[in-house]
Design brief:
This protein is mostly helical. The chain contains eleven helices and no strands. It starts with 6 loop residues before the first helix and ends with a helix.
Length: 187
């Protein structure tokens, strides 16, 4: 399928637009999570992966949640990216849109990209600072600790249930996806 950009072109665009290596890693982690969620839900992993990879193109230039994603939407539309990908990216930040998420693609991207930060934070508290040390049970435990990775909105993470995926399974899916690319993430 042609979504207006290949994965390699998308990765080049991410590296061109995002200078903070942690944000690049967040995009890579979100891509891996979205691919795995697509597989679980019978969706297209390429399409969902592109949404994960491209979702934060304007995170450095538009960090304010009232405008974040608007610039990304403009950039991707000019490049001819698939409209469903653009819509999912727009809707991962409802605050800028004044709309609510309604589709599985929206819920998956919002919940999937949000949990990546919590999973990274969970890895960083282990002595070896490796994703391989993290277990799904410890991710679920950290979700209950409101002060841990406080920026990871637990309500958004729980939107996984709107996909028909229980939180326990969701934690395992997302952690497993990130563990597969741990070396690339430096974790």
């Amino acid at each position: 399928m042609d979504y207006g950009m290949t994965r390699n072109e998308a990765l080049s665009l991410v590296r061109e637009r995002i200078k903070n290596p942690n944000l690049v890693n967040h995009s890579l982690a979100s891509e891996a999570v979205m691919r795995r969620l697509a597989e679980r839900l019978g969706e297209d992993p390429e399409k969902w992966g592109l949404a994960g990879l491209l979702h934060d193109l304007d995170a450095e230039t538009q960090p304010d949640l009232t405008t974040h994603t608007l610039e990304t939407e403009e950039i991707l539309r000019k490049k001819g990216i698939d409209e469903e990908i653009i819509e999912a990216i727009r809707m991962h930040n409802e605050k800028a849109q004044g709309e609510r998420r309604t589709r599985p693609f929206h819920f998956a991207l919002a919940a999937g990209e949000t949990i990546t930060g919590l999973i990274v934070a969970a890895a960083l508290v282990y002595p070896d600072r490796k994703l391989s040390s993290v277990k799904p049970k410890s991710v679920r435990k950290r979700i209950k600790e409101k002060s841990f990775a406080a920026g990871a909105d637990r309500e958004i993470i729980r939107e996984c249930e709107k996909l028909g995926i229980p939180l326990e399974e969701f934690c395992g899916i997302c952690l497993g996806a990130m563990q597969e690319i741990a070396e690339e993430l430096g974790l």
